[in-house]
Specification:
The structure is a single chain. With 209 residues, this protein is mainly α. It has one domain. It is built from 9 helices and no strands. The chain is globular and about 55 Å long.
């Protein structure tokens, strides 16, 4: 795979996993009743939290994996399963992979929802972290990590921007439009997940090749 193709594949996977367009509707619902200034402050704080989380995963994640003895192939296989499950949930427009009803109730009583549950686990959840970790383990040079970091920050900023205009966007797309976007992202994720899973299993079980 060429460097350009690898970057494009990573951007597509991370964008689909973060699903900033589909999650805009969730943001609008969770910030309903708050002032425009409060909503935009929450959007900015969420973007910063997402960027910091993914940068920590990019630079410190591999050290933790080595500490626990996790290889890139086992990570690909496990990450592929996690991403596939999330992709299927999105394909059927279910939200169980993002938050439970108890978490939503808890969020309603929080003064700030930017970090929990918006940044983690809705935007930068386990699947998003697994996608970044797989990319870092596969392309572990300093330049690759800088590229991955740049992509993470750029998508976090895009998420914050879309969340800042969540009201108009959600009204324009409507529930059906949000559902279509989420389903398309889920289909893309499912396809990417199958590739991750196949690569991991092929390396772990050479007989399958």
């Amino acid at each position: 795979m060429t460097p350009e193709a690898a970057v494009a594949s990573f951007v597509a996977a991370l964008f689909s996993m973060m699903n900033p367009i589909g999650n805009t509707g969730i943001f609008a619902g969770m910030t309903k009743g708050r002032s425009l200034m409060e909503s935009r402050q929450t959007a900015r704080a969420c973007a910063v939290a997402v960027a910091v989380t993914l940068l920590l995963v990019t630079w410190a994640g591999p050290l933790l994996l080595r500490f626990f003895g996790v290889t890139v192939d086992t990570l690909r296989a496990a990450g592929g399963i996690v991403v596939l499950i999330i992709g299927l949930h999105m394909l059927f427009n279910k939200s169980e992979h993002k938050q439970t009803s108890d978490e939503l109730e808890d969020a309603a009583n929080r003064p700030s929802i930017a970090v929990v549950p918006l940044a983690i686990p809705i935007v930068a959840g386990p699947g998003t972290m697994a996608t970044v970790l797989v990319a870092v383990e596969q392309y572990h040079s300093l330049i690759s990590k800088l590229v991955i970091s740049t992509v993470c920050v750029a998508l976090a900023a895009l998420t914050g921007l879309l969340f800042s205009f969540a009201g108009p966007i959600s009204r324009w797309l409507g529930d059906s439009g949000m559902g279509v976007v989420t389903r398309v992202m889920g289909l893309v994720l499912a396809a990417i997940a199958m590739g991750m899973l196949a690569q991991g299993l092929k390396a772990l079980l050479p007989g399958l090749a």
